[in-house]
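Researcher: Please translate sequence to structure tokens.
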Amino acid sequence: MLTFLKTNLRWLGTGFLLTFASAFGQTWFISLFASTIKAEHGLTDGAWGSLYTVATLCAAGLMFWRGSVADTVPLSRLAPIMALVFAVACVGMAATGSIWILGISLFLLRFCGQGMFSHIAMTAMGRWFEATRGKAVSLANLGHPAGEIIVPILIVLSIAVFGPRPAWLGTAAVLALVIAPLLWGLLRNDRAPRGHARAANTPGLKGRQWKRRDAAQHWLLPALLPVLLTPGFISTVTFFHQAHIAEVKGWTLALMAPGYSAFATATVASALIAGWAADRLGPHRLLPILLLPMGVGIALLAPSGHVVAWYAALGFIGITQGISTTLWGVLLPAVYGTQHLGSIRSLTMIIMVISTAIGPGITGILIDYRINFPVQSLFIGGWCLLLALGCWMISHRLAQELSLTRIEPA
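Model: Translation complete:
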């Protein structure tokens, strides 16, 4: 592991930096400002969730249209440009004086943060690595939990000391003056490690380099649609409604804060284990267990009145989140090849972004109709357990196709 890290530190560091900085566009980050935003604009939970849904769906649409730029534009240009656009979005959040500016700023935050930063990172890992792809993806994805541990503390302190608007401006400064130059410096030379030329054109099933249209027509992506939607939906709505959960349960946000550490720790541990397992056993073998921890975790929110249930719930959700980020980063290039990976990944990213878009809107409206989120969580947990059975069937069929691909000559 140490030799691998030393040899590939620059490239792994690029992936880590992108996933870490994606924090500024993630739901849990934006939710830290939710009370202020709702009060300033007079929004209910349903109205705020619906606005968030519209902004995120628009971001998903742009991802579908422009996500393939990761295949055609050098990352040394694409990543810094996205960081600067990200910074503009943060300035917009600080300067928001109307619902329109708020909506546009939310759209850019979601497109850059949850969308392009994560998309670029995982496309790069899938293309740069082959035999150690699972390990590379899991290490690069450590930026997500690192951000979840470090950023909330700094932002909460910034809001308390300076206020929400200066906190947004400070975030914009970090993106423009620190993240963008670092990305340019790390990516100014193309990666060309030993064996990269072969890995860059690694084929997928049937020895083919699948295009996005072909992948969309293949049985696997439609079958995986609900599986792709679910982890993002659940983690998003859980963080998005944390203030509501605190109110229903009689907890305080300060008392719930250790849940972030439980989530991040579980995410790190499961991502590293999933990376090891994907390289040795095959990524498809992770599918049957993917949603089981999350289903158990989200269901724990319903019956318990003790805050320990919150810590446990986030820990179990973190296990699935860690497996998920590693799984899709390894499975897609293994199945569809790497030549058009950016285009295909953008399609799956759209699905994941849509799940984070519809979640706050649907659950927020249900809350307005007095169906609180802990009650909703029981049904969500049951959905996860049902999907786990479907994942076992998908894994079994995919194993057969991958086996045939290995036997057939190139």
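Researcher: Any highlights?
Model: The chain has one domain: 9-188+201-407.
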